[in-house]
Design brief:
Largest sheet: 6 strands, antiparallel
CATH superfamily of the largest domain: GAF domain
Low-confidence stretches: 1-6
Distance between the termini: 54 Å
Order of helices and strands: HHHEEHHEEEHHHEEEH
Oligomer: single chain
Strand content: 15-25%
Number of domains: 2
Helix content: 40-55%
CATH class of the largest domain: Alpha Beta
Shape: globular
Radius of gyration: 21 Å
Mean pLDDT: 86
Number of strands: 8
Number of helices: 9
Structural class: alpha+beta
């Protein structure tokens, strides 16, 4: 009997629930824990895991299940992050060496930014962001750097959805955040002082691809007591310009 489209979508939804049950701290899960996290019957998870293992989206290590190599391979094929990472890594290394601080590269994904590269500096132990980690738009310098260049209606959507307080310093007043975004859009840098994680400061700048398309944002972060936004501003601006030139060179037709 053939599978109807609705059944296919249902299977895909359940497989997605299984894959999204993993997070950055997982060292493998048994079927029972995976079923609990995914919110699915154990028998369903067992059957779908067998298929995902066969296709290399998951891997088995005894009774433990891990994310598989094929997911990593597919992730590397995502054009925008891959191209941006290729262009950015040497620029990020220079920025880290100049400032001595943690450097992050992020792209927007809906109502969040996703960190796609990290360079650890002297404050490495303080970093609260990992590669693949998601950050709120309103409470981080990286998020504000990209949000500032959204359309007015896009900004309205984010502000109207509510501004959750991550710390006591998070800006939760829409009017105050709107003023800050206007300053960033007018040429200022995005600054965060203990708004996402207590004791951590971050300064970020948007990065643009050829044609003026927003590609993402790059940031420098460190201890709130030590990081001077003015001190890293020139290095950040230079890094953004260099990265824009590198992106343009990647897109330029070869002779």
């Amino acid at each position: 009997m053939s599978t109807v489209p609705g059944d296919a979508v249902g299977v895909l939804d359940r497989m997605t629930c299984i894959l999204e049950a993993f997070d950055g701290d997982d060292r493998g899960m048994g079927i029972s824990e995976l079923a609990l996290r995914a919110g699915l019957p154990k028998s369903t998870v067992s059957r779908l895991v067998a298929t995902l293992v066969r296709q290399r989206y998951l891997e088995r290590d005894g009774k433990l299940i891990h994310l598989g190599l094929r997911l990593f391979e597919l992730g590397q094929l995502a054009e925008q992050p891959r191209e941006l990472r290729i262009a950015a890594l040497p620029v990020m290394a220079d920025l880290r060496n100049q400032t001595g601080e943690n450097v992050h590269l992020a792209i927007r994904d809906g109502g969040e930014v996703v960190c796609i590269a990290v360079m650890r500096g002297r404050s490495a132990g303080l970093s609260t962001v990992r590669t693949g980690g998601r950050l709120p738009l309103h409470a981080t310098a990286l998020g504000k750097a990209v949000l500032a260049h959204d359309s007015p209606s896009g900004i309205d959507d984010v502000l109207s959805a509510g501004l959750a307080a991550w710390t006591a310093q998070t800006i939760t007043d829409p009017a105050a955040l709107r003023r800050q975004l206007a300053g960033i859009r007018g040429g200022g840098l995005a600054v965060e002082a203990g708004e996402f994680a207590t004791g951590v400061s971050c300064t970020a700048i948007a990065v643009f691809a050829p044609g003026g398309r927003l590609a993402g944002a790059v940031s420098v972060s460190g201890h709130q007591a030590d990081l001077d936004a003015d001190r890293v501003a020139q290095a950040l601006r230079a890094a953004a310009l260099t990265l824009a030139r590198r992106l343009a060179a990647l897109r330029a037709p070869s002779d």
